[in-house]
Amino acid sequence: MTFTEAQARHAELADEIRRHDHAYYVLAQPTVSDREYDRLYHELLELEKRFSGLVTPDSPSQRVGGEPLKEFKPVTHLVPMLSLDNTYSQEELREFVHRVQRFLPDERLDWVVEPKVDGVAINLRYENGAFACGATRGDGSTGDDITANLKTIRSIPRRLQPAAGAAAAANPTLLEVRGEVYLTKKGFEKLNAERSAAGEETFANPRNAAAGSLKQLDPRIVAKRPLDIVVYGLGRVEGAPEQPDTHEGMLDWLKRLGFKTPERTWHCQSADELVRAIDELDEVREGFAYETDGAVIKLNSHVQRERAGFTAKAPRWAIAYKYAAERAETRLNGITVQVGRTGTLTPVAELEPVFLAGSTISRATLHNEDYIRQKDIRVGDTVTVEKAGEVIPAVVDVVLARRSGRETSFVFPKACPECGSKVFREVGGDNEQAAAWRCPNPDCPAQVRGRLEHWCSRGAMDIEGGGEVLVRQLVQSGLVRDVAELYRLKPAELANLERMGEK
Ligand code: IVH
């Protein structure tokens, strides 16, 4: 076989493999048996072994390529990646619709509702039809170049599918596609089971697992994670003679180019229809392979979008509707008491781990002593826990029907569990904290730690690494007793702490 002959056969095989990949990974409609697929793939590998010139970067054999990276290079997005405004209430959703209508008076507004996929926002850049660069959202204008990791995801086409027939010229020379990379719910459970069996730390939820996977510098590790993608938007597009003028048209176009788009969308023409659509989505989303945390509502017409415009961080033509709290039942194994930065004693429920609203939780707040008494919550009870989005999970009720009689009442401590000081309680007043017991000792290590953590937190000084673990070490070792002492720390003192070094 000459090189030219091998090259022709290689192109044929590569093409066929790409078509089967698309059918299997994007459409979920396999077109060949595993055996036949393996035969084609094997033949391709054999050719590449004999003629190394055939190993091009976009060959199907190069999904997992190269050596681990040292770091990710920054990539500037050609069009910034914005975020969305959020709402949890139907009332606010209706207000949003009215607001957009006021912007575009006398116009008929069409809307599209999509699942809000709980993953990692990604930008894919195609140059002359070939996948050239993939990046994380980063700060919205610059992200990390994670091309090698994204190449391992088989539902991301390495080449755009050629447009049918005479429209071949319709494929753009430059195309930025936006979407969400996620780990399937099943894949997440499996990955965590494997990690826990290997004594490794488990991921809190599928989104963290997806983000953690994409941060790996070694694509061979990424290739083992069941990552997938849904695309729902565009960035810069050049050289496409005709561009769709609606969101629905755009999704259709992306599908024809070979991408995986949302499996279900709703077309709506009024606030009432939108409310119905998000309720329907709430009913069916359990059955999706990925976690969803809401619905995204978008104006369908691109012309109208342009006129509605943007605020500093989000488009005015779209909004995310987040679903309310999810609930689960689990056993209350014990109650511990935490001391906060202002000395407030908060009872914490130690729970039998349970999967709730996207993550496994083993602790929830019980608010204060009165709350425990009013709800008659006892250790050993089966309780209902609730969580909405980023909010701290809380115990909301006792399942009395599950009570056996062996449960025990909780006696609130009269002394601070951290420093032993006698606790006091401010009764009355108009503040919600009035029902709380407090530790009076400003030097209580828990309070000191709480103040330092608060000082270091993102909303305050945003000191990198200044989280619970480091603060505890600093206080325990006697290096830091107050905020001022943070600024007197010497590199040598820090270097002596666990997991600290020269850098
Ligand atoms: S559109 C300018 N559509 O949600 C509009 N975003 O809270 C950009 N997301 O950063 C976003 N599913 O990571 C859009 N169907 C969907 C989405 C979606 C998930 C994420 C995306 C975005 C975040 C905003």
Tell me the layout of helices and strands.
Elements: H1 3-26, H2 34-50, E1 74-76, E2 86-87, H3 90-103, E3 111-117, E4 120-127, E5 130-136, E6 142-144, H4 147-150, E7 174-183, H5 185-197, H6 206-214, H7 219-222, E8 227-238, H8 247-256, E9 266-268, H9 271-284, E10 292-299, H10 302-308, E11 318-322, E12 326-339, E13 345-356, E14 359-365, H11 369-374, E15 382-387, E16 394-398, E17 424-425, E18 437-438, H12 445-456, H13 468-476, H14 483-486, H15 491-495
Parallel strand pairs: 2-11
Antiparallel strand pairs: 1-6, 3-9, 3-10, 4-5, 4-7, 7-8, 10-11, 12-13, 12-15, 13-14, 15-16, 17-18
Helix pairs in contact: 1-2, 12-13
Bound molecules: 2-(butylsulfanyl)adenosine.
Task: State the gist of this model.
The protein is of the alpha+beta class and 503 residues long. It is 30% helix and 23% strand. The strands form five sheets. The chain has a five-stranded mixed sheet with strand order 2-11-10-3-9. A five-stranded antiparallel sheet has the order 14-13-12-15-16. Strands 5-4-7-8 form a four-stranded antiparallel sheet.
Q: What report would you give on this structure?
A:
It is a single chain. This protein is an alpha+beta fold. It has 15 helices and 18 strands. The strands form 5 sheets. Strands 2-11-10-3-9 form a 5-stranded mixed sheet. Strands 14-13-12-15-16 form a 5-stranded antiparallel sheet. The protein has a 4-stranded antiparallel sheet with strand order 5-4-7-8. The longest helix has 24 residues, at 3-26. It binds 2-(butylsulfanyl)adenosine. Residues 82-84, 114, 116-117, 121, 180, 232-233, 296, 315, 318, 320 line the site of 2-(butylsulfanyl)adenosine.
